Amino acid sequence: MPGNSSATEYAAGDRICFAYEHQYRVVDVERVWTSKDGNELITGVDPDKGEYRSFRIDRIQRGKVRVIQRGGVQESRGAVPGQTEG
């Protein structure tokens, strides 16, 4: 596929942040699919605006994708299992 990113990097239920047409976007992914034209697309909801959006995967800038949540579970960095804050 002649794109910069791969649909296998994220799936429905993930919240991702990515650079698209020189702007950063955050989307709750609802669907990763292929159009009739053969383009791979991500469709999801902008969590801040509540709007549905679709993005062509080949237009996402390489190296500018970050999964914030996997399947609706926030990824923690540096947390120790069983440890509580306080």
Fold and architecture overview:
It is a single chain. This protein has a six-stranded antiparallel sheet, with no helix packed on it. The protein is built from no helices and six strands. β2 (23-34) and β3 (40-45) form a beta hairpin. By secondary structure, it is an all-beta fold. It has strands spanning 15-20, 23-34, 40-45, 52-56, 60-70, 73-74. It has a domain at 16-71.
Task: Please outline the major beta sheet.
Answer: 6 strands, antiparallel
Q: What is the overall pLDDT average?
A: 80
Order of helices and strands: EEEEEE
Poorly predicted regions? 76-86
Radius of gyration: 14 Å
Keywords for this entry:
disordered C terminus; 0% helix; single chain; globular; 86 residues; mainly beta
Write the layout of secondary structure elements.
Layout: E1 15-20, E2 23-34, E3 40-45, E4 52-56, E5 60-70, E6 73-74
Antiparallel strand pairs: 1-2, 1-5, 2-3, 3-4, 5-6
Describe, in short, the structure shown.
This protein is an all-beta fold. The protein has no helices and 6 strands.
